[in-house]
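User: Please predict structures.

Assistant: First:
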Amino acid sequence: MASIAFIMIIITCISAIMARSLFEEICPKNFDNLAKTFFSLFTLLTLDDWYSIYQDCAEHDYASFLLIFCLIYIFIINFILLNLLMAVLVDSFQYTLETDKNKHESTKKDLNINQRIEKNFNSLLEDYCDKQRDDEITGENSIKIDKLMKDYYILLENLEFRMERHEQLTRLAQKAMKFTVIDQDNRKTTAKK
């Protein structure tokens, strides 16, 4: 956005100098000095009463040349650069919305995984308690502890894998933020140059 605004300012300055040198004698009401010329060009930029500028200078021979100049200026500044500025703003908003949506989906997915692990662990615990009660009632001590321990270790491995993945994603996010800050600093130094 800053570069587009800078281009707009440069084009406006160049156009003001050109308009003053070309139309100073023809239409001194609007192009007598640089302040009036900048105001007239700003009027052209906003498309507010731009035809009155043309009518003030219409009595002279170069009125058609003034009309061509005004139309070219309006086309470049208003229809190209302002629309480009709007496109950059919309693209920035859309990127922000997409990143927020992706973050929300990833946290929702992690929450679902954690809920599933907790549910599996609770079901294993209930199975163990039920088996323990059944064995106390029947008097048998043939609990399948091996299966229970195996399921428990699988859950722990799954949880450990998820934790490592989470740490990796956190590190990647920190690196991305660091590179973004570095990139912004580089753009600022480049813009200053």
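Second:
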Amino acid sequence: MIRFTALFSLTLLACTSFAQSSPSTAALERNGATVTIEPYAPNIVRVTLSTIAREAQAAPGYGFVAHADGTDWTHAINSEGADIYTSARMLVTVAPEHRRRPGGKLPDTAKFFSGAGGGVDIAFTLPDGTPLTEMDGWSMAALNQKDDTLRNARGIKPEDLPLYTVSRVSFFVIAGHTPNEIYAGYRLLTGSAPMLPKAAYGFIQCKQRYSSQAEVLAVAKGYRERHLPLDMIVVDWFYYTKMGQYDFKPEDWPDPAAMNSQLHAQNIESMISV
């Protein structure tokens, strides 16, 4: 399981896709599983685990625009055999193989209930050792009757992946001293979302319904005369000649362009319901 401390950190799940691993990626073997440690910034690291090596070394799925960057990260193996990745902002420790928690011995049949792998323990801390989060004992369940994966496996094609209870475990950890640092890391990974037009954040007037151009302009005029805020007005349905037609009934909406010009002159945007 993954545990967090009160320090700011974010774990962002990421589906994997089929791709070669980045040169910045470090692939490790742990108890039958492949573990990749992939830095994206001094305070951002991606971890992917799978008993299927190509899955563990795959790139993030859709929605991620950043590229792995191992600049200013170092790798060392300590005296106990743990792999340690260090930057100025974070320290990632992947425990050595066959680490077991006290009293954690499991029977041979446990692989069908507790996972086929021997477990992977990964700790994320600040460089001074202050804990951020920890993954304790990840594993994948084998094909079995209990979860019905064995029977369902008969229907897959030879090129398909085997079926597991857990297969595409991939997540980012973003560390920061403030929420803004977390958001900055999120933006690095997914890109910046554009802001909506300013009027969309204001007051939008709508009702069922305004039946004519004259009525819309009269409502807008009334708001301004009473000094009430209005940023957008919605022209709801039945402005068109027939359902689904993108036009205006000329007898009720003689000049939509002129209507918009008058609204814009009052700093009011228009929206139509389609």
